[in-house]
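Hey, can you fold this one?
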Amino acid sequence: MKGGEHLSGGTPPDGEWTTVELTTTRQQLSEQRARLSLSALEAAAGRAGEATAASGHAFDYDVAILGLGYVGLPTALAYRAAGHRIAGIDVSAQRVDAIRRGDVDLIPSDRVLLESHRDSDGLLLTTDPSQLQRAAAVIICVPTPVSEDLSPQLDILRNACLTVVTNAVTGQLIVLTSTTYVGCTEELVVQPLRDRGLKPGEDVHVVFSPERIDPGNVQFGHEAVPRVIGGVSPACAARAVDLLGSAVEQIHVVSSPGHAEMTKLLENTFRAVNIALANEFADICRELELDVSAVIDAAATKPYGFMKFTPGPGVGGHCIPCDPHYLLWQLRRQRVAAPMITQAMHEISHRPGRVVDRAKDLLAENGIPLNGARVLIVGVAYKPNVADARESPAIEILQRFWSAGALSRYYDPLFPSVTLPDGHTLTSVANPGAHEPDIVVLHTLHRNVDLSWIGPKTLVLDATYAATDIAHRSVL
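Sure. Predicted structure:
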């Protein structure tokens, strides 16, 4: 995850927007919130003692989190750590039970928070959506994947927003965080609330504030990552500043939900385009017999005008492989072209196929046909040190090898088994050294992974570009 810059300017005209830096103390928060328009702040209620909304309605919980996945659960823990009473809600009883058992993938600091709070009165874990009515604020944290044809799969988000609107009560703050298209907050939250007779900005407050959770990243804690807020009105934004500012150190307010929605799309499209460029430079450097990692490291010594991105076997998770397609889908509907983004996403989607083609070439150079070859993939997570294989290129790579007749297996201690797109289930090999592969493909290298079993005569395709200790490796 890339931390955002703090953008500040002069004093804005009354009623407009500015950036607000927040600290964790209530006194400092109050002083800095004064940089928002006074009328907006007077319209929003402060949080003190028992959560009480602007209408004077008393709530049992300060915050309800709808969706307790890779974003929602760390978000719930962050607000609980900030002193809020939390209602954590998920449609999956299995997920709720796993959280209660502590059987979930979290960074160490979040795991400590879960152990400390999961049995406390301040953290409710439930599948009952009616509990949303008991919370002063509702934060929507549900996944927004894409379908096989790369169009948005909006069913989960639509259902979540419908649930929130159905259970909305006067005085609530509703925060949509799920990455989506521009105008989604208006279409799925604001207008349905109006249809129910609730006026956003008066009866309820609505903002879009894109999530910035990076699974497995211990460098940037929740509180250290700035949050962007786009409210339906200044009063909506001010109410969100009060809530989000209690858990993060810096807030950047923009003038509308649409600006905040586009901010998230820009963030991840920027990453996608630059990863595609890094992959292309890797291919170019291989043809010119240059070490792309050395080139990138050298370029990264420039203290301005360059940001380091590294090549790899593809992209995974629910951000880079998905988010730009929400933008492209919307642009296609409006007949607006975005050729650079389109090409970057095309190249990214074809990267796993290039891994298989490169492995096939290396095998052929050694007189081994792909059909019947023993192929071992090391690491199936989409990134190191997380038990998360969402959109992982490794799954497609395994499937492509399997479909080509190769005896493909994998080794990843974090994944006892994976299911391929054709429904075939593979289990992780217990002893990779005993597998005697014809080629090893390094896909994801978890922390402290042991590769000492790789012999000097074993073919190795390093798709991570990071296994420099293996002198005889070939890179993608």
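The chain has 13 helices and 16 strands. Let me know if you want another pass with a different chain boundary.
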